[in-house]
Design a protein that fits this description.
Helix content: 40-55%
Oligomer: single chain
Number of helices: 5
Structural class: alpha/beta
Order of helices and strands: HEEEEEEEEHHHH
Radius of gyration: 42 Å
Strand order of the largest sheet: 7-1-4-3-2-6-5-8
Distance between the termini: 120 Å
Number of strands: 8
Length: 253
């Protein structure tokens, strides 16, 4: 007696086929991420701190994903070695003086390695070569610096509001503010008096000749400029008339 119906066998076959398809798809995706189906070569770099970098993270060069992180090992208390798998087709563009930096795909995105551009004179990297690294700046360190700066600014504003320091006294002490205003008034008064003295000096018969010569020199300079402009205009008009006559002669011919 048959223990399984035909419908059960069909379902079992579909389940097995689906499982195999998912398995093959998973192998293809993982292999693509690990560059198992592309020719690759190896490079490595060392860091003091990898800032959360993990095996399998992408490697970018000129903004393009060219490889993945293959292995991360702690060499000693101050050195972490990062092995990289890079596509063979981009090896000719990576120079031996390129540097490796740790970045992120966004503000809080996954970590990745960034290979910077090298110089055109440097030779191409070789298999297994080490690239110099640029240590990452930790976000925690940036936030700590910002916090310290904020505290310092708050202390400065508190001192100003309390009337401490020159700026604080200037803002909060009405006497100093009034003295400053009176100083500005005195400066304006002095400037006005200086202008009046200059006008009086121009009318003084002892200095009248000096100011007259100065005025004449300015007038002569202005006249010379106007004469030069008029001469240039006449020269231009003469050249235009000459060109018009030449065009008329050419038209008759």
């Amino acid at each position: 007696m048959e223990t399984h119906t035909q419908k059960f066998k069909i379902r079992l076959g579909l389940f097995i086929a689906g499982g195999l398809a998912l398995f093959i798809l998973a192998i293809f995706i993982i292999g693509k991420q690990k560059n198992l189906f592309n020719p690759v070569f190896k490079l490595y770099s060392t860091f003091y701190n990898v800032s959360g970098l993990q095996v399998g993270n992408n490697i970018r060069f000129s903004g393009i994903t060219v490889g993945t992180v293959d292995r991360i090992r702690i060499i000693n208390d101050s050195t972490v070695k990062v092995d990289m798998l890079i596509k063979k087709e981009v090896q000719k563009f990576i120079k031996s003086d390129c540097e490796v930096a740790i970045g992120s795909s966004g503000l809080i995105g996954d970590k990745l390695l960034i290979i910077t551009q090298g110089s055109t004179e440097a030779p191409v990297v070789k298999e297994g070569q080490q690239l110099e690294s640029a240590e990452p700046v930790e976000l925690d360190a940036i936030m700590a610096n910002l916090q310290v700066t904020s505290i310092q600014l708050a202390e400065i504003m508190y001192k100003i509001n309390s009337g401490n320091g020159t700026l604080g006294r200037l803002i909060n002490d009405s006497t100093i503010a009034n003295d400053f205003g009176q100083t500005m008034v005195n400066i304006k008064t002095s400037s006005k008096g200086f202008s009046e003295n200059m006008d009086a000096a121009k009318h003084n018969f002892l200095l009248r000749g000096y100011f007259n010569k100065k005025a004449e020199a300015a007038a002569q300079k202005k006249k010379d400029a106007e004469d030069a402009k008029a001469s240039e205009q006449k020269k231009k008009e003469k050249e235009e008339k000459k060109a018009a006559k030449q065009q008329a002669k050419d038209a008759k011919k």
